[in-house]
Amino acid sequence: MKKTIVLYSLAMAGAAFLLQWLDYQHAVRTFSTPIYVVVIALLFAGLGVWVGQRLTRRTGSAPFEKNLQAIEYLGITEREHEVLELLAEGHSNREIGERLFVSPNTVKTHLAHLYDKLEVSRRIQAIQKARALRIIP
Known about the structure:
Radius of gyration: 28 Å
Order of helices and strands: HHHHHHH
CATH superfamily of the largest domain: Winged helix-like DNA-binding domain superfamily/Winged helix DNA-binding domain
Helix content: over 70%
Low-confidence stretches: none
Number of helices: 7
CATH topology of the largest domain: Arc Repressor Mutant, subunit A
Number of strands: 0
CATH architecture of the largest domain: Orthogonal Bundle
Largest sheet: none
Strand content: under 5%
Mean pLDDT: 87
């Protein structure tokens, strides 16, 4: 931890020194103003990219594994699971029915059963809860 603090402190001190040096060079008119603007813009752009990468570093995600225990506990049938996957892909009831060769009313019935089993009242809630339970990717 101390090493990190020392490194960040040195980086900040170096950046402050560099900005002061640029300010001094600008005051004595060594270079034209657009050059200073470009240098400072590049410094801040580089700093922004670096901070962005540090804050949003992604770890390698494991491949999706279906939570069979949750599916079994909730009593979700294979057909309801298929409907849930197609629902998560953004298909309408009619499109789901066409893909599964059932009527839209049958899809509505499956969805009603899913809503009861997942204890939700809307499509988005069902998808969110299913993903949280790792039932669907």
